[in-house]
Amino acid sequence: MSPNTVHEAISIAFLRSAFPVRRPYLWLSLMGLILMVGQTSSADSSTPSAPTASSTPGTVVGTSIQFNAGGNSDRYRVSGWSQTEKEWTWSEGKSAQLALPIPSDPGALTLIIKLGALISRPAVPHQTVEVFANGQKIADWEVADTADFSARIPAEVTKKGGILNIELRVPNATSPKVLGLGDDSRILGVRVYSVELKRP
Prior knowledge:
Layout: H1 3-18, H2 24-46, E1 64-66, E2 77-79, E3 81-84, E4 89-92, E5 95-102, E6 109-117, E7 127-133, E8 136-143, E9 147-153, H3 155-158, E10 162-169, E11 188-198
């Protein structure tokens, strides 16, 4: 027997003792009211709550996306990413893509990425990174040690809003094994710590 049914039975028993059968019309009306309220309460408790605005992805402009363990980058990574590590996530292969939600017609934006590259001096002193926003090249970076790199995204690229696709192409990505840095055979390019979109 459900808690609502028990409550209804107790309430009806109380009404019968408080209002004798000589006035049946009164306690029958009250009994009907109790049953109706109980059914409404049961229906309300079984109906899932509607999703709130905060539960749906919104714009990332002005927020920092973290690529470390416990960070929030998973939902934005599309392809070309290795498993998240303690402090960063490596790009894997020659291309890595992100899908970043932005508002409609936000104007020009600045992309800021904190990253470092898989290098081995003197043979591989840096990695060349070609940066694209919605298919348009916006920067060429030479990445070695960890640093902040930035690129301007023109207003005509962002004006439609919705999802902004960011692609990092690393044509000379290689593996730690090839560079003599261990047995890791993954084709790695750059390790990413954070990504941010800002208004200039």
